[in-house]
TrEMBL record, chains A, B:
Keywords: Amino-acid biosynthesis, Histidine biosynthesis, Metal-binding, NAD, Oxidoreductase, Zinc. Substrate binds at residues 236, 258, 261, 327, 360, 414, 419. NAD(+) binds at residues 129, 190, 213. Pfam families: Histidinol_dh. Catalyzes the sequential NAD-dependent oxidations of L-histidinol to L-histidinaldehyde and then to L-histidine. It catalyses: L-histidinol + 2 NAD(+) + H2O = L-histidine + 2 NADH + 3 H(+). Pathway: Amino-acid biosynthesis; L-histidine biosynthesis; L-histidine from 5-phospho-alpha-D-ribose 1-diphosphate: step 9/9. The active site is at 326 (proton acceptor), 327 (proton acceptor). Its EC number is 1.1.1.23. This is Histidinol dehydrogenase. It comes from the Bacteria.
Amino acid sequence: MIRLSTRDASFTRDFAALVDARRESDADVTRDVSNILRSVREEGDAALRAFTQKLDGHDLDDGGWSIPLADCAAAFDALDPVLRDALELAATRIRAYHEKQRPAGSDFTDEAGVRLGARWRPVDAAGIYVPGGRAAYPSTLLMNAIPAKVAGVERLVVVTPTPKGAINPLVLAAAHLAGADEVWRIGGAQAIAALAWGTDRIARVDVVTGPGNAWVAEAKRQVYGVVGIDMVAGPSEIIVVADGANDPDWIAADLLSQAEHDVTTQSILFTDSADFADSVVAAVERQLVELPTRDTARIAWEANGAIVLVDTLEQAMPLVDALAPEHVEIAVDDPQPLFDMMRHAGSAFLGRYTPEAIGDYVAGPNHVLPTGRRARFASGLGVTDFMKRTSFLQLDAAALAKLGPATVALAEAEGLPAHAQSVARRL
Amino acid sequence: MIRLSTRDASFTRDFAALVDARRESDADVTRDVSNILRSVREEGDAALRAFTQKLDGHDLDDGGWSIPLADCAAAFDALDPVLRDALELAATRIRAYHEKQRPAGSDFTDEAGVRLGARWRPVDAAGIYVPGGRAAYPSTLLMNAIPAKVAGVERLVVVTPTPKGAINPLVLAAAHLAGADEVWRIGGAQAIAALAWGTDRIARVDVVTGPGNAWVAEAKRQVYGVVGIDMVAGPSEIIVVADGANDPDWIAADLLSQAEHDVTTQSILFTDSADFADSVVAAVERQLVELPTRDTARIAWEANGAIVLVDTLEQAMPLVDALAPEHVEIAVDDPQPLFDMMRHAGSAFLGRYTPEAIGDYVAGPNHVLPTGRRARFASGLGVTDFMKRTSFLQLDAAALAKLGPATVALAEAEGLPAHAQSVARRL
């Protein structure tokens, strides 16, 4: 963990180093992934079976390639009622939030008599990747699948590895709740290849979303263009902008909630109170002792954590923009003026009673968000990631007479005479 | 050119071959592009200068790295008035269409007392690639730059190669009209690298759009995630759905308007009249003799063209969906019922007086569209490609009391105790 102050002589240089720090793996998996993709594309199910035997340690022909939807329903029914209610609350609120994202399209006729507009339609099929092992989060399945269903996607395919054949009942329950149409027991780059190109058993999809390890991320990058993908994801991060009137224990818990995800995650506190900074550092240390996930959280906090002391919180906001974080909390009584100053963040959590974790589960907005400074240009997952827009035009002879001559002039200037003639012949 | 009929015994197989035909280059430029990107990232302007000397045949230190904005204004003023008016009409109509795409965002408080919403902001800087040589189209510059300006992008950077130092005055004029802030005389993968990572002279941008050759396309693919990009572009295509009441010369001109772009482009006619199909074939042959771009157009038509005879035009629409074309014309008196049947296309041109070329220039919708069946999942370029969305949440103690317990239950079930504590401490 590093501590910086905007009053330090070296602040500009030190902060630039913080901004440019790369937390993403340098593991060069490009070639491995290319080979896996090529194998699945050429050999289909045989390659899927072989990779699953080798990497996940079970035989799909023995244990079954897919999980019956009835098993998903049974897993849901068998949930502890408290958990089932919590998942249902999450699904209901996520659905309500995303329904407001459905785009309206347009259809109008302008003063030249030209009808123009745009029409949105869902993709035919979407594939959702759900990691196995410790990162197998039912909440992530909901966050990916519900926007697809709200978009109107008719075929929703879940792929999830089942290492050593072990199936996570929480994931099955979430697949049931989200309305998955197929659940396949495959993972890794091989699963992404199956979704992109299809095999005899698994029909290809149009969009692939969902988190994964470096192999999955690289596989998605390589199939981008064959299918749509959500984004290139990297390690997660949180920035907390807090004044000295906060409870240090609350803010420490927020910083640790990011740190416990993975050793590559980053938690940064901006505050205008040096005393408060000290109290938060002490609270982090106290809480780490008790935290069941302390091994991961401590490494992440010590390696990537930072506290930046500013003269005023207003001074912090351009610095936050430079980091363009996935999550930003603005923990003050009146967060709106600071939020209005900010340009770049995936998701913002306003006020003292809005810990980031509330947005991970039940609040409604998506928790699949741009990381690694990509909030400069990227957005969280949404309904339109599972839809596409067809623009349209309709002219009659009178409208073409108005726009035709300019089109002919431009087409000829660009050296495209057949373009010009397709208009000129109709004039 | 191939002719198919849905009545052929082999139709299913033949049509599948048409759908799966790859027109994209297999040239493996991946490694070349990686090397160019690495050089520019490490050596900056020196690498840019060296690649430009080698590939474009001029020295940036001699002829100037950038084109002064005053030169762009002068090029605009020096245009033939007919052309200038045409460009201005195009810019005005493109701007009007795209202004309707500006997203509204949302901000509301639900029945649980949770404030939630989404806020859209432009990216800080966008880079537009404009090819040199024969594909240096001022219309493409307008189609890329105007949505960025409508989005509110404050820094709009144009890069365009100037082979042998030759500058295209039409491109400069369009850059002036579109409001470009910088115009750099660089191209190829090296220009994409400069936009993505920046150099001493050229500050990095957040989004890179615009067409280019295989090197440029691969470079964009490789920098995707470092910056946003518009899409992976491939060869262009048009489908014309036409009944026998059309003028064969009009439809032939439409097919050739696509074919003249490049030998990899594809033009396909679906019709329910065999006689009309014969007349179109004859008209294509007649027009090709006179067409200045006949060398390209003939190769494209003969290699990739197709005519598909259907019993009814309704039968054609699922076949069109399977091809998911960049452009589709529906040339009948009442196109709406057929258009309503269709799911996948980048842009639709409805009725007998809407040749595709009208959409390339002045109609208003964007001509940067998904190709190579990507209309299954991708949309044309638009204002939101230059913006990003920040979701936000604000809870008070009462709202947190309602959502908190479910969050704690889910976080504990997922094995994320610090997430649970960040909520539980506030309850």
